[in-house]
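ok trying this again, last paste got cut off
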Amino acid sequence: MAVASPGLFDGRTVLVTGGGSGIGRAASQRLALEGARVVVADIDLKAAERTVELIAASDGRAVAIKADIASQDDNRAMFDLAERHYGGIDGAFLNAGILQPYLPLAEVTTEMFDRVIGINLRGTFLGVQQALARLRPGGACVVTASLAAVTGFAEAASYSISKHGLVGLVRSGAASFAARGLRINAICPGMVMTAMNGMTGEDAILPLDGLPDPAYRGGLSAQQVAEVALFLLGRGAAGINGQVQNVDAALLSAFPPISELQ
């Protein structure tokens, strides 16, 4: 069992969307280990409840809610639950999203495009509006974008477009958040070894001194990404607002070696 460091989130309530798996589950567990009361939201209620069980097994506090972030009512309900159950909300990790089938641009249908934009961009926009209105002063919002937000993605254009939009949302929202004593930032993960990317993720959370370094330009664990989200949610990142942080093991740091292009 992982051992919490001194509670960086003691007395604070944090909402995590997409908390039933992958980065969202890892972040929910880590937040709880740091003393946060966690609202775990996911469109798959059983997955969210499983995250809550994992948190309870480490003596943490959490509650699950079924939520489709594309729904304005569901976005309100997530924040309502945090306020009703824990008396208020201090942080929001708006992490939920979907991929599109890998297709060249010409084969992306209008229906595919509308669904990805409706969830990834519009749905996150609705969550950001709730966070702006309802986080307590000193709070923070972190949005999960993607490396596809800072470069093109020829085989998943609608996904890349939706994530580019999130960067604009975060940068455009920084002034409004600051005016209320809040912050908003984005993380842009590279390849993460989760079920969303067709891989089997691990639920176990490692102590930080046991968290391995990823290979150069290699895949990351969900926890390695979640740790960056926790930093941006925490008071240690008080000077960071409206920024976009790649979490990619240097994947976009340089062109790949010639050997990788052959």
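PB: full thing came through this time. Residues 13-261 form a domain with the Rossmann fold fold (CATH 3.40.50.720).
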